[in-house]
Amino acid sequence: MANKTIRIATRQSPLALWQAEHVAARLQQAFPGLKTELVKMVTRGDKILDAPLAKVGGKGLFVKELEQGMLDGVADIAVHSMKDVPVEFPEGLHLAVILDREDPTDAFVSNRYSSLAELPSDARIGTSSLRRQCQIKEKFPQAEILSLRGNVNTRLAKLDAGEYDAIILASAGLKRLGMGARITASLSPEESLPAMGQGAIGIECRINDAEIHEYLKVLHDETTTIRVRAERAMNERLNGGCQVPIAGFAEIHGDRLFMRGLVGSPDGSVLYRAKADSSLDQAEQLGQAIADDLLAQGADKVLRELYQ
Ligand SMILES: NCc1[nH]cc(CCC(=O)O)c1CC(=O)O
């Protein structure tokens, strides 16, 4: 293992670079002498900035190019936000490890209002996530939802320029970039149920690369893995990516796994919610049960309309 260099495929947004550098630092801490190298790439999701994600379509918008890099042998691992990782992988690649979770909540950020509850009914709210949009619209049917794309700094600059009364974005991204102080209020799961995998970092690599797996093992976080396994199982059954109004969030209390799921119409007029709990070794079954509950309520109608 002497002189080994691990080449890490990453996007170039400040958050992606932070996450890749975090993984590099953790690996070097565990394996003194190990070298790492960032292989910086541009994904389709980075290029298409003028359209809402829901319109761009296609799964794996932020990961495909990184995956091709590993298949081509120009990178050994890819560091992803779990939220952006589709449930299926290209042949030869898989998810090797999930790291401990940062704050999974959605953040309410405003220069004018101190909480979601204080917003005027016709507030202008920035978000490009249908999941956030449908939950906001349920409570504020008159609210104007405005597109908000770009990296964290771009999004905050748009808010500061006065384009919105408030914006909603992932707390994890703000905290990782040292901008946690910009979070006006963390939204509770009742106010905005997070996306599957939100706040968790995952590492993908070639299935047959035994040496790399030896290194990655030290990064594994069991609690986060169980939670994200349940959340991904729900999305898999609903056939949902990050461009559909689906939320799934699991928490561990004692020796039980508690999960909530949600499917909504983008305009917030229909929202289906489900919750259940299980033992920790039944994570996948729990996620599937939540999905089945949502489907039995009629969630498939909403999803079918979106996929058309
Ligand atoms: N879809 C983009 C994306 N992917 C991961 C994060 C934030 C970090 C995380 O959830 O780990 C974001 C930005 C956002 O949702 O505001």
UniProtKB/TrEMBL annotation:
Spell out the SUPFAM superfamilies in the cross-references: Periplasmic binding protein-like II (SSF53850), Porphobilinogen deaminase (hydroxymethylbilane synthase), C-terminal domain (SSF54782)
The protein's job, in short, is: Tetrapolymerization of the monopyrrole PBG into the hydroxymethylbilane pre-uroporphyrinogen in several discrete steps.
**What region holds the Porphobilinogen deaminase C-terminal domain?**
226-295
Relay the record's extra comment. The porphobilinogen subunits are added to the dipyrromethane group.
- Its quaternary structure? Monomer.
Task: Spell out the InterPro entries in the cross-references.
Answer: HemC, Porphobilin_deaminase_cofac_BS, Porphobilin_deaminase_N, Porphobilinogen_deaminase_C, Porphobilinogen_deaminase_C_sf
Catalytic class of the enzyme = transferase
Please give the residue positions where the record annotates the modification S-(dipyrrolylmethanemethyl)cysteine. 242
Q: Which GO terms describe its cellular component?
A: cytoplasm
What is this protein's record name? Porphobilinogen deaminase
Q: What residue stretches are annotated with the Porphobilinogen deaminase N-terminal domain? A: 6-213
Reaction(s) catalysed (UniProt annotation): 4 porphobilinogen + H2O = hydroxymethylbilane + 4 NH4(+)
Entry's Gene Ontology BP terms: protoporphyrinogen IX biosynthetic process
Q: What is its EC number?
A: 2.5.1.61
Question: What's the superkingdom here?
Answer: Bacteria
Q: What molecular functions are annotated in GO for this chain?
A: hydroxymethylbilane synthase activity
Cofactor note from UniProt? Binds 1 dipyrromethane group covalently.
Q: Which cofactor does it need?
A: dipyrromethane
- Give the metabolic or biological pathway: Porphyrin-containing compound metabolism; protoporphyrin-IX biosynthesis; coproporphyrinogen-III from 5-aminolevulinate: step 2/4
Q: Which family does it belong to?
A: Belongs to the HMBS family.
* Pfam families, alphabetized: Porphobil_deam, Porphobil_deamC
Q: Which keywords does UniProt give here?
A: Porphyrin biosynthesis, Transferase
